[in-house]
Amino acid sequence: MFDLILKGGTLPDGRTTDIGITGGTIAAIADLSTAEAGEVIDANGDLVSPPFVDPHFHMDATLSYGIPRINASGTLLEGIGLWGELKQVMQPDEIKARALDYCDWAASLGLLCIRSHVDTCHDSLIGVEALLEVRKEVADYIDLKLVAFPQDGLYRDPTALQNTIRALDMGVDVVGGIPHFERTMADGARSVTALCEIAAERGLMVDMHCDETDDPHSRHIETLAYETQRLGLQGRVAGSHLTSMHSMDNYYVSKLLPLMAEAEVAAIPNPLINIVLQGRHDTYPKRRGLTRVKEMQAMGIDVGWGQDCVMDPWYSMGTGDMLDVAFMGLHVAQMTSPDEMRRCFDMVTNVNARIMGLEDYGLRVGAKASMVVLDAGNPIEALRLRPDRLCVIAKGKVISRQSRNDARLDLPGRPASIRRRHSAHS
Fold first, then answer.
1. Residue 425 pLDDT > 60
2. Which helix (H) or strand (E) holds 209?
3. Do residues 175 and 165 lie in contact, with contact meaning Cβ atoms separated by under 8 Å?
4. What confidence score (pLDDT) does residue 193 get?
5. Mean pLDDT of 178-190
6. pLDDT tens per residue, range 217-268
């Protein structure tokens, strides 16, 4: 007797099967036609995926667009300046309310694992306190990991180092940084070393904003890979954005990528935001604002897509849908072969889970019973349509249901309703 059986769903690898859930765990993946359950959900013809995973987000800023003003230039630097203004007026209850609203969106979309940066350059650490409360409140359905992020620079801000350590002492999970925003390249390199040493001492992971610039001479990823190896942090470190790599000369990159691969440093580009913020000084030719995704993958480097921002000082749009992220990434990285498109779907599920170190993740017996049923037949169709999430299951419980949203036509001689699925050609 199972608590829940998901019947006849199509897994991302193409298998059609039933999934039996007991408690908060996947108990069986097999033909369960004769089994009984407290509830049976028909997923016949629909894609059943592990939950979506976002390894790089800013939840303390989300849904704050327009407060106290909008980013008129659309640049990264104005966004950082605007965030500094927002920090002066934001209140803990407002941060928490916006974050919980975003978590509602995420839950409805099957985004059940999020790693969010939280600014540690405000002496009050109100963002840290608010998101620690949010982490506790959503724990039954969203795995929220927090990154101690010295947004204004570990050395550029006079209290950032001590506040970052305070945040980690309060229970923040991951060490962050922003070396390219320090006053000098030397200070940037020093910050990478200091932050990696803190992570090594505490046994923590690292997700560092790294080289989020068009400057080809911003090469802090090299220092990050070196420190990862020196301190034995292999498999626990990610460099996020890495946009300077789109401007580096090919000879240097040919040396850099093997270093990253040897150090097992993962990469997290954020295509929605990178394509908007980068290349702002260019006329034409205009840089695409994205790091070298396919080249890194060819070297065996884990590359996952990140959401980064939704309606905040840096980005005026967004819904929380990781399929939007993968869809943009697919286009900007020109990953349009069937294998590459399937890889883009994997990047917002399994690869991101691996980058975050989620050991109980996935569609396998014994894993956490979290999954999403999509109105699509396979991963490529899911990317094309960014379809409705018909059902979201978190830790064994159904937390969201959505009716199939077929369009109704009134056309002579044509069907009465239609959905834009076309699996035979996906």
1. no
2. strand 205-210
3. no
4. 98
5. 97
6. 999 999 999 999 999 999 999 999 999 999 999 999 999 999 999 999 999 9
Residue where the block lists tokens 């990317």: 383
Report d(CA 166, CA 198) in Å as an integer.
12
Q: Say if CB 8 and CB 45 are below 8 A apart.
A: yes
Please give the Cα distance from 70 to 317 (Å, whole number). Answer: 12
The whole-angstrom separation of Cα 51 and Cα 40 is 19
Of 404, 309, 419, 369, the C-alpha closest to 63 is 309
Rg over alpha carbons for the chain, rounded to the nearest Å, is 22
- The tokens 């999403």 sit on which residue? 372
* Distance of alpha carbon 41 from alpha carbon 392, whole angstroms: 11
Amino acid at 80: I
CB neighbours (10 Å) of residue 323?
27
Tokens of 178: 């922003």
Token pair recorded at residue 235: 């498999």
- Judged on CB neighbours under 10 Å (0-12, 13-18, 19+), 373 is buried
Distance of CA 382 to the CA centre of its chain: 17
CB neighbour list of residue 153: distance below 8 Å, 6 or more residues apart? 160, 178, 181, 182, 183, 187, 191
Q: What is the mean pLDDT of residues 359-371?
A: 98
Q: How far apart, in whole angstroms, are the C-alpha atoms of residue 304 and residue 306?
A: 7
Catalytic residue numbers, as ranges: 212
Q: At what angle do helices 92-109 and 126-137 cross, to 10 degrees?
A: 40
DSSP character string of 47-101: EEEPPEEEEEE-TTTTT-TTSS---SS--HHHHHHHHHHHHHH--HHHHHHHHHH
- The whole-number average pLDDT for the span 100-105 is 98
List all residues 6 or more positions away from 230 whose beta carbon is below 8 Å from its beta carbon: none
Contacts 24+ apart (CB under 8 A), 126-130: 126/90, 126/91, 126/92, 126/95, 127/60, 127/90, 127/92, 127/95, 128/167, 128/170, 128/172, 129/92, 129/170, 130/60, 130/92, 130/93, 130/95, 130/96, 130/99
Give the whole-angstrom CA distance, residue 356 versus residue 51.
14
